[in-house]
Amino acid sequence: MLKKETGHTEKVEKARKVPEGLWVKCNNCGEIIYRKEMERNLYVCLKCNHHHRINAYNRISITLDEGTFREYDAEIEPVDPLGFKDIKGYKEKINESQKVLSVKDAVVCGEGLINGKKVMICAFEFAFMGGSMGSVVGEKITRLFERALKGRRPVMIFSCSGGARMQEGIFSLMQMAKTSAVIAKFKDSERPFISVLTDPTTGGVSASFAMLGDVIIAEPRALIGFAGPRVIEQTIRQNLPDNFQKSEYLLEHGMIDLIVERKNMREILSRLLDLFKPDHIKRDIEPATYRHRTTDASQKK
Asked: For 89, phi and psi rounded to 5 degrees?
C-alpha cells in the first residue's frame, strides 16, 4: 500500500512539473504572466502597465526598423586603472558581466533607421554593473556624437543607469564633462538629441548628458534623479512628496517634456524626427529671440 501511494505521488509530481521560464512575475503588482504574452507586450505588465527593464539589444530592436542596426565600437572594453578591490576585484566583476551578457560594457551604440529616417542610437545595458558609466561608456557616447556631427544625423540615447562607476573613481567622473562637452559641440549640427529616460536614470548620468537633450522623454513611473530618495530624506530630514523623482512628478515640475508608453515610443520618436527636419528649423532667428517674439505677439492679441 505504501509503495502504491509513493508511486502515485511521484506520478503527480511529474505531471505538475512545468518547464522553467514559461512564466514571469510582475515586479510591481505580482501578477504571474505568460512570458510570450509579456514579450508581445514589449515587457510591459498586462495588468498594471508596469514597464519592466529590457536589455540594450531588445531596446534597439523594438525602436529601429528591422535589420537596419549597425553597431559601432563593440570591441572596446574597460580596464582597471586604479586596481580597485572590494569584496571582488574590479577585473573579476567585469569578466563575470561579460560572460553572462553579450556586451563588453554598459552601452550599445550604433546607427539605424526609424521609419526610414537615419539616426544614431545608444542604449544602456543595466544588467552590466547597474548600467554604471565608466571610461568606456563615456568614450562610446562621445564617439557616437562625433559620428553624428560628421554625418549630420540626429542622436537618441536610452538611459538606464545607477550613475558613475565608483571602481574607476575620477576617471568615471570625468565622463560627465566629456559627454557634456561633445553635446555642446553637437548643437552646431542643427540636428536633435533626443534623450529617453527609463527606470532608473540616476547619479552622474542624470547629472550630465541624460538631461541635456533637445527633447527629454521618460517612460511611465521611471525613477529619475541624482541621489536616491532615501539619501535625500536622511540629508534634509524631511519627508518627500508622493511620487518624488518619478517621471510624472518631473513632468509636472517642468524637468522633462513627455511621458511616453513603450508601445508608442517608436512612433513618437519618428514624429519628433520629422519636426526637427532642417527645413523646419528657423536659422535666421535665435531661439531665445524667437520665443520672445512669439510671446509678444500673443500678448498684443
From this structure: -70, 155
CA separation, residue 252 to residues 210, 244, 258 (Å): 18, 11, 10
Q: In this structure, is residue 224 part of a structural domain?
A: yes
3-state secondary structure string across 137-190 = HHHHHHHHHHHHHHHCCCEEEEEEECCECHHHCHHHHHHHHHHHHHHHHHHHHC
Q: Is residue 299 part of a domain?
A: no
Tell me, yes or no, whether 11 and 124 share the same domain: no
Distances (CA, A) of 50 to 26, 31, 47, 197, 225: 8, 11, 8, 15, 19
Q: Show the cell assigned to 284.
A: 535666421
Check whether residue 185 and residue 247 sit in a common domain. Answer: yes
CATH number at residue 152: 3.90.226.10
How far from the centroid of its chain's Cα atoms is residue 64's Cα? 15
Q: What angle do CA 252, 255, 259 make, to 5 degrees?
A: 65
Residue 297 domain-assigned?
no
Pick from 214, 137, 130, 125: nearest CA to 179: 137
The vertex-204 CA angle with 171 and 288, nearest 5°, equals 115
| 294 domain-assigned | no
> What pLDDT sits at residue 199?
97
At which of 17, 34, 52 does a domain end? 52
Average pLDDT of the residues in 141-164 = 97
Q: What is the pTM (predicted TM-score) of this model? A: 0.85
Q: How many other C-beta atoms can be found within 10 angstroms of the C-beta atom of residue 96?
A: 12
For residue 144, give the amino acid letter: L
Q: Which domain holds residue 108?
A: 53-277
**To the nearest whole number, what is the mean pLDDT of the chain?**
89
